[in-house]
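S1.2 Input.
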Amino acid sequence: MKKSVLISGGSGFIGKQLTNLLIEKGYSVSILSRSKKQNTVDVSYYQWDISAHSIEEEAVLKADYIIHLAGENIAEKRWTKDRKEAIVRSREESAQLIYDVLKKNNKKLDAFVSASGIGIYGAINGSIICIENTPPENDFLGTTCQKWENAADIIGNLDIRTVKIRTGLVLGKEDGFLKKLTPIFKFRLGSALGSGKQYMPWIHINDLCTIYLEAINNTKMNGAYNAAISDNTTNTVFSKTLAKVYGYSIWLPNVPAFLIKLALGEMAQIVLNGRRVSSEKIEKLGFKFQFVNLENALRDCLGK
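S1.3 Output.
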């Protein structure tokens, strides 16, 4: 009998790719969605409303594994007070909703796997290499990711193996971060941002999805894992490599930091700051990244 995986946030960029991988590997897949959707041959859809604290409980009760990707997009809108509260609330309340169903029904999962982010180490430039026991930073990104992980840990308190995937910048085809950069770089208008020295730990979408697959299959995985290539890519290196993939060398000066701050407000720290991270912990378990070279990863994503 097929093992069942429930994905929250399964309709997003990562969720779609992960769904395809799980189906390919023989899993039965269900998705929690805010809107009513028609089931397909491969995927069952269930509704939930986080703000109303409602959920079709069958989705949770039939699952062997839950992969929790749900949460407001951190980089989608300016960080107003209300927006910041919504970002945190979406992560805490969604996990709480799942927890309540599990606890009420005394439901045991084989594993609960939650998204997190390398933002837990803060939006701060520096040479320190962050590993999983590096203390969280006390800025908005750091505290948000910490609350995100704390929300996952309450499910771990139900004696359920809980894994937290601290994700770097995800590179994928026709979506995500690259979708925003493609029009600029394709027309040879790309340049580095701010100082260009800020680190940009990245990961190919295929490798990220394989890490989630590993997290449900590998019973040794527990706790937090960095999911990013440890190659010390800076914004300048990233920008020059992306330009190279499009067949030119960057000719424009760096975009001044003050202009980025004017455009994005406090959210500018996402692109103006960055930490170095290590992926040694997950590699010690035997996980091997398919894409470790930035140029190769970008060419694969862009079909170049």
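S1.4 Remarks. The two ends are 41 Å apart (CA to CA).
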